[in-house]
Design a protein that fits this description.
Rossmann fold; S-adenosyl-L-methionine-dependent methyltransferases; 2 domains; 7-stranded mixed beta sheet; 4-stranded antiparallel beta sheet; 6 helices; 24% helix; globular
């Protein structure tokens, strides 16, 4: 079983407050500045394809995700794109893009520094000459807050959902434990998820990009306040 297997169908409702349109416009702004001739994008860890939906108005957007349920939703939402159930750490599509992006801190699921370098190397192979890689990071070791607990409630016409969360840490890996209560006319269902994400400092990230063959700059604000690494294949 992979993460979100039980909750993929509720994902868009749970993140209904996330401004995908604003974030997609932020990606466009980057590309207008750094690579205005870009025509195609690979969205790595694409989730349900919300960013792709908005970006596809201007670009050809394909996507990958480890979760098959997400790929099914993303494919239905973006019929002009190709969406693949793949592991970004072992990615081999035999295809290259002007831009590869990995948003919403999904890069941290690689967990370790070696995994980060290896994954960036896999993404490197999917970028055309003069192309770019955009990566939205997770927390750094000194900004992660352990023992934090939160509750999120959302609802639509057929569901009422409560998601409780508690954060911990094991070394340089952050841990998010989620428990969901999903109420419908048929009753109440209960799901659990454990998410493990690596904690990488800015220096860790920049070093990993360099080791994977990129030159890189960092935008502290990014498209959602999480920052953004803007990397280009290193010449020579």
């Amino acid at each position: 079983m992979t993460m979100f297997d039980k909750t993929a169908s509720y994902y868009d409702l749970i993140y209904s407050s996330k401004n995908y349109l604003k974030e997609a416009n932020g990606i466009r702004d980057y590309l207008v500045r750094i690579y205005p001739q870009a025509k195609d994008i690979l969205d790595v860890a694409c989730g349900t394809g919300m960013h792709a939906q908005y970006l596809s108005e201007q670009y050809q957007v394909d996507g990958i995700d480890y979760n098959a349920n997400f790929i099914e939703i993303a494919s239905a939402r973006n019929p002009n794109g190709q969406f693949y159930c793949r592991d970004m750490m072992k990615l081999d599509l035999q295809k290259q893009y002007d831009v590869v992006m990995c948003l919403f801190s999904a890069i941290a699921y690689v967990k370790t520094f070696d995994g980060l370098v290896d994954t960036l190397g896999q993404l490197h192979k999917h970028i055309k000459v003069n192309g770019y890689l955009l990566v939205e990071p997770w927390f750094a070791p000194d900004t992660w807050e352990s023992e934090r607990y939160d509750m999120l409630t959302v609802e639509d016409e057929t569901h009422k959902i409560c998601r409780m969360s508690h954060s911990t840490r094991e070394g340089l890996v952050s841990i998010l434990n989620f428990q969901y209560l999903v109420s419908t006319r048929q009753g109440i269902e209960h799901y659990k998820e454990r998410h493990e994400l690596g904690l990488f400092s800015k220096n860790n990230m920049l070093q990993a990009f360099e080791m994977a063959g990129f030159t890189c700059e960092y935008d502290q604000e990014g498209i959602s306040g999480r920052g953004m690494y803007i990397a280009k294949i290193r010449e020579g």
